[in-house]
Amino acid sequence: IVQYSLNGRLWLSQNDKSFLGNGRIELLEQIDATGSISKASKNMKMSYKAAWDAIEVMNTLSQEPLIQRVSGGKGGGGSVITPYGKELIQTYKVLHSELKIFLNNLSMKVNDADGRLNLLHTMSMRVSARNQIIGEVVSIEDFNLHKKITLYIQGGDTITTIITTKSTNKLSLKKGMLVYALFKASSLKIHLDDTYESCEENLFIGLVEHIEAEEAQNEITILLNSGNRLYTLVSDEQMATWSLSKGQKILVSCHFNDIILGLF
User: Fold this and answer.
1) Do the strands 158-164 and 249-255 form a parallel or antiparallel pair, or are they unpaired?
2) Which residue from 49, 136, 222, 239 has the highest number of Cβ atoms inside 10 Å of its Cβ?
3) 83-107 vs 22-34: helix crossing angle, rounded to 10
4) Alpha helices per DSSP H over 152-199
5) In what order do the strands lie in the sheet with 178-183?
6) How many Å is the maximal CA-CA distance in the chain?
7) How many CB atoms lie within 10 A of CB 137?
8) Residue pair 171/185 in contact by the 8 Å Cβ criterion
9) Are residues 2 and 121 part of one domain?
10) Could you give the C-alpha distances from 125 to 119, 120, 231, 254, in angstroms and in order?
């Protein structure tokens, strides 16, 4: 059976000018590790001029300097990556990981018989789940005949879901992967008592950021302490009973089984 795979390279451009790619990111990391443009260029087997030219281009296109010269000191000075430069390195790595996930998932849709893409319309599919959060897989545990997957999301929150072993294998889930956690607004339950506990639900604490009235129900936007946002639905009757208001602190929960995972 013929197996196809898709490969690609990631380049960030600004005004049609190449800004960041794998090679330049590696150069920044080498400078960060060695504190020297000269040593970094030698480690990468490139000329000092080529390294310096790349740095000049990056610094020119960047909103803020990526590299700064440091003079004096025990080692006689050198070069350091700025905080903004380190942030760009991490951002690139996240984007590169997303690209790998996308290409891997697309590869699985290639027809072994004729190499044509199946179900291409799924590429443009709109997901109905109101809550869509990107997280990093930090734990995969056996749970009866299923797998218990825990994701770390930006800001310090975690999301746990339980899916079948078959689904885990189909998605090729591994620790360190970035995936989407998807769940409907109706799956998110509000608890006014912040002492509520559950060993089968994800619990989040946040503030009511926005209330949008719809027909017979209201969509509540909840700003979590981590900075992430979740959305839930509350009926008019519940709104009247709870007297929810903007800025109010609430606890929300979502059962492990109500969360599905997606690769893109």
Assistant:
1) unpaired
2) 222
3) 140
4) 165-170
5) 158-164, 146-153, 131-143, 178-183, 260-262
6) 71
7) 18
8) no
9) yes
10) 10, 9, 21, 24
* Residue 139 bridge partners (DSSP): 150
Q: Give the total residue count for the chain.
A: 264
Beta bridge partners of 154: none
**Residue 49 shares a structural domain with residue 34:** yes
Cα dist. 92→2, 82, 99, 145, 243 in Å?
33, 15, 10, 37, 44
Q: For 219-249, what is each residue's pLDDT tens digit?
A: 999 998 878 899 999 988 888 888 888 999 9
Instruction: Report H helices in 77-235.
Output: 83-107, 165-170
User: What is the rounded distance in angstroms from the CA atom of residue 214 to the CA atom of residue 216?
Assistant: 6
Q: Is residue 261 part of a domain?
A: no
Q: Quote the domain boundaries for residue 158.
A: 127-181
Instruction: Quote the distance between the C-alpha of residue 125 and its chain's center.
Output: 20
Q: Would you say residue 108 lies in a domain?
A: yes
**Confidence class for position 114, pLDDT limits 50, 70, 90:** very low
Scan for tokens 């590429």, then name that residue: 123
- The pLDDT of residue 107 is above 90: no
Contact between 180 and 133 (Cβ < 8 Å): yes
Task: Report helix angle 22-34 to 48-61, nearest 10.
Answer: 110
pTM for this one?
0.52
List the end-to-end C-alpha distance of the chain, in Å, as a whole number: 27
Neighbours of 185 (CB within 10 A): 18
Only one residue has tokens 């506990």, namely: 197
